[in-house]
Recover the amino acids of this structure.
């Protein structure tokens, strides 16, 4: 039962309930999809840290470097 993702829920006439279900489905999907990717990386001998977002400001530095097409103009 590892690949059982064909469930379907049809909601008619109540967009609020549909939105709540969609939001929860998306939250669960993203959580478990990320864990699956991290597990695949670990299983192949890699480090699962790599798919995490960089929390340091270093990744934004190029965008503010002089001459970069997205740098603020002086």
């Amino acid at each position: 039962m590892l690949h059982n993702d064909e469930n379907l829920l049809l909601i008619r006439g109540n967009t609020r309930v549909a939105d709540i279900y969609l939001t929860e489905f998306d939250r669960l999907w993203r959580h478990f999809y990320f864990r699956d990717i991290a597990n695949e990386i670990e299983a192949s001998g890699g480090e699962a840290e790599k798919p995490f977002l960089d929390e340091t400001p270093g990744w934004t530095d190029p965008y503010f470097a002089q001459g970069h097409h997205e740098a603020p103009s002086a």
